Amino acid sequence: MVTTSQPQRRDAQRNRQRILEAAKELFAERGLGVTLHDIADRASVGIGTIYRHFPDKSMLIDIVFEAQLEHMVELLEEAIADPDPWHAVVWFHERALEEQALDRGLKELLLGIPEAPQRAVRIRERLHPLAAQLIERAKAAGEVRADCETQDFGVIQLMVGAVIDAAHDVSPDIWRRYLGIALQGLRPASVPLEPMVVPAVSPQQMEELLVGAWKNRS
Known about the structure:
This protein has helices at about 5-30, 35-45, 45-55, 55-80, 85-100, 105-110, 120-140, 150-165, 175-185, 205-215. By secondary structure, it is mainly α. The longest helix is centred in the first third of the chain and has 26 residues, at about 5-30.
């Protein structure tokens, strides 16, 4: 005999999954500023249903991004295992920014949004020493200029992250051009410049990019 509690549990599980899927989509599209009401609308559930499963947004963020944050640690560990110190630096920054270009919420967590859940803060604390190891190895090999600091690469991610946001609808891959320029600036003067594969934006696109930058400041 099937009890009424079993269909109720199945309904609850389906609602929970719909909420998680809606949250993942909205965080990726709009960032962490979306509200629980936004998520409820996307999931086609009532706000009360959201609160029954997730009493606050931080818990929802924790669950949605747990695997992605751990993946960032894995990317750094994989980069450190690369025998070529400079290739490792470039490869990691490209992979990390590719992930952020696809998911605005992940970018905000990684780049230090103040209200980040404790899980994200702890992941960043794990990332920092690994990033330092990656950069110090490149410095020791003479692949990065001696006066460079690990924090310089963090600032590069902030800068390129702003380009990702501003150019999202204009030239989605233009950030690769500026990542290349920035990374080249941290190489020793004796190293030849590498070609810029991604072309610059057109004058019209530049206007659109500036508008996109202002929109993201609001």
